[in-house]
Backbone:
């Protein structure tokens, strides 16, 4: 049978057995071949498009806990209501409907993230200190060891014992971070807290250092108990989940004020963005976009919050892939040494006590 004997109906019948990706490939083969021209017809794409809309709406639904804490209810943003149940308008203009849905979603995501930046800018402007006491992570990490050793020799007691307390909302990754720093591997089980973690370091001049890592529970039920671990802290690490915007804002709303109220004057604070591997997690990105209309917190956003909250520095980590943990360990040790010897003001002239608690 020659191609001239094949009419449009036969072509459509053949095309109906192909998947959407295969239809796309057929369409891209030629601009003049009739079968390629027919590959984009509505009759072939309607079911797929409607299924795509329906699947997106289904993914956008998420569960909320009930007041009694035992049951959950399913909810969805009002944004999706016009696209549910495939009404007459959607059936008629299904292509335009999908395009409109995706376009409006992109606009909503973009606007939400712009609002985050606006809030951060406003937060920085409302900050009491006009000067930025923030020190970039690379500046501290790249300091020569000889310089750090010179400051360490000013401390008379040996071994040098310091204390680091990790704060942040529940489930942001504090316990996994401490465990991975301590044991070099990501925990293969869920844990409520990691207790008794200790880091040891010997400097070039044979000065020995010990840094105990204190885990805390971020739940409200532990507010009174948690602050009992704050006395004699040498550095605080306030953690948030880069995929959890609420944990990000809680740094300013809850954790910095709590530390100020219940700790000694002039203690360094490091802000830590945890779970950075989620920035490349397809399912997480999809869920953030479709359910919450946003993207993960960016490094620049984390740094802006650190500056607004007068944190000493900002660092990012992925306990799952062991990324950023070596630099974080270096940051902790150098922060406590330079704090104890007043080295910050000498090494970084722009630095003032405002980067500490006050």
Residues:
């Amino acid at each position: 049978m020659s191609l001239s004997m094949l009419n449009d109906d036969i072509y459509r019948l053949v095309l109906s057995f192909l998947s959407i990706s295969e239809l796309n490939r057929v369409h891209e083969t030629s601009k003049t071949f009739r079968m390629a021209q027919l590959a984009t017809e509505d009759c072939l794409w309607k079911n797929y498009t409607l299924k795509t809309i329906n699947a997106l709406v289904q993914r956008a639904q998420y569960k909320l806990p009930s007041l009694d804490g035992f049951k959950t209810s399913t909810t969805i943003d009002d944004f999706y209501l016009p696209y549910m149940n495939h009404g007459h308008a959607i059936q008629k203009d299904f292509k335009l409907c999908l395009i409109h849905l995706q376009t409006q979603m992109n606009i909503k995501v973009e606007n939400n993230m712009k609002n985050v930046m606006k809030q951060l800018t406003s937060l920085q402007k409302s900050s009491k200190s006009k000067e930025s006491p923030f020190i970039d992570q690379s500046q501290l990490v790249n300091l020569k060891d000889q310089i750090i050793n010179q400051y360490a020799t000013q401390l008379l007691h040996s071994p040098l014992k310091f204390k680091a307390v990790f704060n942040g909302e529940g489930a942001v990754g504090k316990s996994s971070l401490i465990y991975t720093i301590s044991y070099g591997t990501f925990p293969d089980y869920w844990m409520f807290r990691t207790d008794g973690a200790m880091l040891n370091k010997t400097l070039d001049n044979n000065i020995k250092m010990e840094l105990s890592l204190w885990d805390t529970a971020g739940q409200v039920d532990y507010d009174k108990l948690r602050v009992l671990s704050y006395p004699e802290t040498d550095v605080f690490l306030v953690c948030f989940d880069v995929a959890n915007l609420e944990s990000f804002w809680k740094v300013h709303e809850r954790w910095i004020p709590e530390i100020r109220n219940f700790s000694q004057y002039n203690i360094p604070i490091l802000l830590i963005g945890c779970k950075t591997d989620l920035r490349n997690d397809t399912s997480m990105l999809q869920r953030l976009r479709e359910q919450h209309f946003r993207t993960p917190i960016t490094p620049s956003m984390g740094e802006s919050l650190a500056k607004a909250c007068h944190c000493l520095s900002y660092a990012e980590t992925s306990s799952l892939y062991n990324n950023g943990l070596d630099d974080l360990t270096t940051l902790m040790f150098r922060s406590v040494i330079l704090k104890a010897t007043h080295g910050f003001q000498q090494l970084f002239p722009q630095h003032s006590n405002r980067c500490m608690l006050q």
Q: What stands out?
A: Confidence is low (pLDDT under 50) at residues 353-358. The beta strands are 62-65, 72-75, 160-168, 197-202, 208-214, 235-241, 269-274, 313-316.
